[in-house]
Specification:
Helix content: 55-70%
Number of helices: 6
Distance between the termini: 17 Å
Structural class: mainly alpha
Largest sheet: none
Number of strands: 0
Length: 116
């Protein structure tokens, strides 16, 4: 469980911990870069609100980036500008980065359990 927590908090850390350095470095570079690009082109970090179910699901997907998400939201990034042409692309980058990190956590868990 500690491996999964570390893998969620820092993308690629679970693979690095298990000695899979090439995969770990790839995830450590690609996923945060994808998240930062999403913020840079005007994406929005969605709030956790149950009033709108799709917004809530997008918030869970964003939260999948771990400490990077927490740092970005704490520092006030990700307010998004609906009028920007790149708003939806930014949202897609943020959501996909979080979902991919969740898959990376599952992959690290499978490696630790000996399934891979």
């Amino acid at each position: 469980m500690l491996l999964c927590l570390v893998a969620w908090a820092i993308p690629g850390a679970g693979h690095l911990w298990q000695g899979r350095s090439q995969k770990g470095l790839t995830f450590l570079i690609a996923l945060p870069l994808m998240f930062v690009i999403g913020l840079a082109i005007g994406g929005r970090l969605f709030p956790f609100t149950l009033a709108e179910p799709l917004v809530f699901l997008e918030a869970i997907a964003d939260f999948g980036m771990g400490l990077i998400y927490i740092a970005a939201s704490t520092l006030g990034y990700g307010t998004g500008d609906v009028r920007a042409v790149t708003y939806e692309y930014g949202n897609a980058f943020l959501v996909v980065a979080g979902l991919l990190n969740m898959l990376v956590v599952i992959d690290a868990f499978d490696i630790a359990m000996g399934r891979k």
